[in-house]
Structure formats: C-alpha cells, structure tokens
Amino acid sequence: MSAALPPFPHTEEPFGRTELLQLDTTAHEPDACLRADAARNRARLLDAAARLVAEHGAAGVTMEAVATAANVGKGTVFRRFGDRTGLLTALLDHSEKKFQAAFLGGPPPLGPGAPPVERLRAFGCAMLRRSAEQLDLQLAAEPSADRRFASPPLRVLHGHVALLLRQAVPDADTELVAHTLMGYLNPVLIHHLTRQCGMPLERLEAGWTDLVDRVTAPEHHTSAAPAPGPNS
C-alpha cells in the first residue's frame, strides 16, 4: 500500500490543487484505467463490503458475503480483488480516498470555505464517526510501530491538520500539536473509549471540539490574572 506522498500544499495554495493520495491496490487489475462499467462494478462491490463491515465488523467481510450483498457471482469478487486481503486493502483505500475528497474539496466546514478552527472541529468529528463505523477494519489494518507514522494515509491526515493549525495558530509548533490532535483520533484509543469504557461517540466528539478550542485559543486571551500577594 506504499506510494510516494504528494507534496503538501503551502497555506496560500488552494486545496483543489492537491492530488488525492494514490495507494497501490490495482495489483489484480489488467489495466491501469478501468473501463467505466468495470469501475462502477468495483465501486458497487466495495460499497457492499463497507455495509458488511458496518453491520457485522471486519469478520463479516468474506468473498461469499460480498458477492451475495452485491448480487454478483463469487467469481466476480475473486477476479476483481484476488483474495480477502486484497478486498480489505481495496476497501480501506476506497474509504480513504472518499474521506480525502471530502476534506480537500468537499463542502464546508469539512472542506474548504470555512475558518480553519471550524474545519478542524469538523475534521475530527468526521474522523471519529468514520472510525466508529469501520473500527474493526481499521484495527485489523493498524500498522506496526515502526511504520505507523510513516504510512502515506496517516501522513496526509497529519499534514492536513498541521496546515489548518498553521492557519489558526501560526506561532505554535504545529507539527507537534498536530501529532497531539491526531493521537486523540487513533483507532486503538477510540476502541478503548467506546467499547471498553462504554463512552458514547457524542462524548468523544464534544471532547474533540473542546480540545481544538483549547489548543487554538490565543494565549493572551486566556492568561490568568496574577494571584493576590500576601499584602493585598
């Protein structure tokens, strides 16, 4: 799934010029450019697989189940994706590209056109909802420690958060702050909070919004008055 990371835009560059991350999921495709009907069939199969993940978790995604959900023969699924691993890889790539399209060029506040703080709030809430819907799949694909922060999808997400932070709080160390914010959105933490601690997703979304507001609040607006001295 590795690919060269596209240059991340500077603040003044419009988001529309950023190319979506291209992940290598075409090992089983005879042509680089799929015919329109083949592309539609592939999208239909991936949509069926995404529904199965949402309803039954990653364990519910089998070649047979996807074929039944998409109303096609099992051989069609094998020809398109090769095996179950190829299907899951393509499913993650499909979801990632849709999400990238939403925050790079979709409607505000997730997409361009809203102030950076509003976009940060929307980005985190969208990430939380997306992770909750496909948590088993994301956990199954969680990279090892030596690859986690170098994976191209995570680098794109981190770069987007860092860019919005540079616009909102240009004096901050936005690279490090972006890592702090992205840590809140880690699927492993979301699994712990929602499934092991029983926290509702709404609480996580509220916590994200509060965290963004605290991180982006100008320090001179939040400085406390000096404590009274002993002779006051």
From TrEMBL:
Keywords: DNA-binding. Pfam families: TetR_N. Residues 39-99 form the HTH tetR-type domain. InterPro entries: Homeodomain-like_sf, HTH-type_TetR-like_transc_reg, HTH_TetR, Tet_transcr_reg_TetR-rel_C_sf. One of its GO terms (molecular function) is transcription cis-regulatory region binding. Gene3D superfamilies: Tetracycline Repressor, domain 2. This is Helix-turn-helix transcriptional regulator.
